[in-house]
Fold:
Amino acid sequence: MSDDEPPAAPTHAGRGGLAIAGAKAYFILIGFVQQTLLGRLLGADGYGAYSSVMAIANVADNVVISSSIQGTSRTVAEASAGEVDGAHRRALSIHAALALPIAGLFAIFAPMIARASGAPHVAFHARVAALIVLGYCLYTPLVGALNGRRRFVAQAALDVGYATLRTVTMLGGAYLFAARQAAPLGAVSGFALAAVSIVPIAALVVGVGRRGPGGPSLSDYLKLLWPLALGQLFLNMLMQSDITLLRYFASERAASDGLAGTAAALAADRTVGIYRACQLFAFLPYQLLLSVTFILFPLLAKAHADGNDEAVKTYVRTGVRLSLVLAGAMVAVIAGLGPLLLSLTFKPEIAEPGGRCLRVLALGQGAFALYGIFATVLSSLHKERWSMALNGVATAMVAAAAWGLVPGAAQGSPLAERAALATSCALLTAALLGAVAVRRVAGALVSPWTLARVLVAGAAAAALPVALGYGGKLVTIALAAAVGFVYFIALIVTRELGRDDLELVLRVARRKRA
Structure:
């Protein structure tokens, strides 16, 4: 049994947690369908070109998503009972006023970044992606309002609907534009269509609040928002800088190999495509743990606003422990089955050279998933500047590691593997720094014994596929289940998981049925 006792979760948080987790599972599943079909529609080079665009767009998108949701959620969650509607309306109006300037700046600078990173052929695609940024500037504050009101089920339903819409429009756009040899542009255009279309739907579901008392002034809200946004900018540069730098190094390598023009672009695109395919799996722990942050953030913000230090400590201990256990399971499966997982969804031109890269990247991205939890804890406890500083330091470490390790490798898998090693080393260091910061601010973290048990269980489970050998796709699926089973059995044997954990799961399940 764990050394940390779980809190008695409120009923709405239990039901909401299941809904958010279910939505996140659906998001991950449909994301795999989307990326698998895109990889087949676009080919290795087209998938690399599309990934180069999204590496730029995702930095802006994720900054908008995280800062909008956290800013609006905190504003609504901390409002008094009679001021919730006014706070809701006030936060949305501020984000609406910021939408066009933010999207306009992206439209100006994104093509410049594409050219500077060695991808001038996708500069126009990057400008089209400004519509995605515009849509998210208007959509995600509405999601934040639901989160702040702790309407987690409605939030989950809205996100499921949007994920489905986005997949349909992206694949449809890629298919329609393929006849014009512009499938990557079609995928980006389909993404933009979905991001803009979801806004009126979300406004009808969520509402826009009412005029009245409540909510911060513009200056006060911007004081709250700018450290969140800057911290998220560094965080998402941390997430995307590796693939953007890889794009630059791959272009430089193509030039040193004597390639130019279209041949050089295609060679670099293929290397980026391999790495992006590995990212698709390696990012799974981070995507899974986003569901934990959606629940943890408003609970911590409310406990902190009430001055309830013991509740803060309890939520931090339980949230970090849950995150560590879940991340360990995902990393064990991904690292253990790396080459086989890629072969499930991608053609051999991507799957075969990407196996070792995925195994290395899985370890670093598992650490990054925990780092994301630490950043959320710091932000919810009004330590946005701490989070911002840590994100900046971590981004600098990724860049420094990449410049030190990546140049000089051959095009293709060697270059991708070097990028994965550099990224993983930097992310592991960043996670340690984040843990230290959370322990100092919250006065709680997780038992060292929990960390030791998770590491032992993960290593034992990841070794299983190597011991048993490899097989076809059906065997891979069976092995994934076996790795997860071994992992959780190891946690039970080491007494990390016990009766209290089972009772908590059953208690939440009963509330769900009720």
